[in-house]
Amino acid sequence: MTALRKLGRHGPEVFPLGLGCMGMSEFYGAHDDAESIRTIHHALARGVNLIDTADIYGPHTNERLVGRAIADRRDGVVLATKFGIVRDAANPVARGVDGRPEYVRAACDASLRRLGLDHIDLYYQHRVDPQVPIEETVGAMAELVRAGKVRWLGLSEAGAGTLERAHAVHPVAALQSEYSLWTRDVEAGGEHGILATCRRLGVAFVPYSPLGRGFLTGAIRSPDDFAADDYRRTSPRFVGENFARNLALADKVREIAHGKGCTPAQLALAWVLARGEDMVPIPGTRRVANLDDNLGALDVKLDAAELAAIDAVFPPDAAAGTRYPEQVMPLLAR
């Protein structure tokens, strides 16, 4: 039986791998709601109980999809959603952030309606609003806990200092940020860095995009593999010379995985899982076959020598290009 992991010192116990649902509604080309619901149901049947969505995915349609999928099996789900990123209908690439207390309250009520739920298990601030003190935002989130609308609080892409200040207002169960073999920013800063701060405070770490937006699976060989509306076509790590340089790194992962007798996705996820018992990655997929492949990572054990070999071929900062377009990068690690 797979051992569960805790989300924070006082948070819920969850399966070691969660399921990210963003791509079921947007950003990665065509989608099929019926297929996505089958995948969510299969995940729950396999023991996966942390299901992750957000109000901006779609926008709004992903919460409705997830709500339909879990309606008759709510008791087996730790449902996570997020608020705070504001999209501009006139400019699909533009992003704003709103952390005002009144927005927090309105966003939560709207998410509950779309999800068809009476409470959210884990409620994240999706990005930190630099115009609003984090104490005010988290104070409003704490009110939602006291009102019974939310059970646990989380932050996403917050810096170490912000996390400290937030946690002083109300315990933060989890920090969700990008983390994988090709995105290791949270390791920087030593004992004052983001990951170290999480561990000192007892905050679980939830890596999103642990497969490098699919690149570390080895399935992507050319930019032409992306659908016309796949956002990766314009993402810095997937264009021009960056693509070729990153493909060489992904091929090294594939070679190690072949020698280990597992798939590249399983190796990449096993690497994340091996970083600590406080890690609960949430790889996203809309297909049952990919979900089953990802879950195979739980059977892949990496010893110290193997972890060192992986670090040698894929050291921190090895990936070419920023992880988001230039206009989005300022929203990170505030």
What features would you highlight for this structure?
7-stranded parallel β-sheet, about 35% helix, about 15% strand, alpha/beta, single chain, about 325 residues, two-stranded antiparallel sheet
Secondary structure layout:
Elements: E1 5-6, E2 13-14, E3 19-20, H1 33-45, E4 50-52, H2 61-70, E5 78-83, E6 85-88, E7 91-97, H3 101-115, E8 120-125, H4 134-146, E9 150-156, H5 160-169, E10 172-178, H6 194-201, E11 204-208, H7 240-260, H8 264-273, H9 288-295, H10 304-313
Parallel strand pairs: 3-4, 4-5, 5-8, 8-9, 9-10, 10-11
Antiparallel strand pairs: 1-2, 6-7
Question: Can you put this structure into words, describing what you see?
Answer:
The strands form 3 sheets. Strands 3-4-5-8-9-10-11 form a 7-stranded parallel beta sheet, covered by helices on one side. Strands 1-2 form a two-stranded antiparallel sheet. It contains 10 helices and 11 strands. It has helices spanning 33-45, 61-70, 101-115, 134-146, 160-169, 194-201, 240-260, 264-273, 288-295, 304-313; strands at 5-6, 13-14, 19-20, 50-52, 78-83, 85-88, 91-97, 120-125, 150-156, 172-178, 204-208. The mean pLDDT is 95. With 334 residues, it is of the alpha/beta class. Helix 6 links the parallel strand 10 and strand 11. Helix content is 35%, strand content 15%. The radius of gyration is 19 Å and the shape is globular.
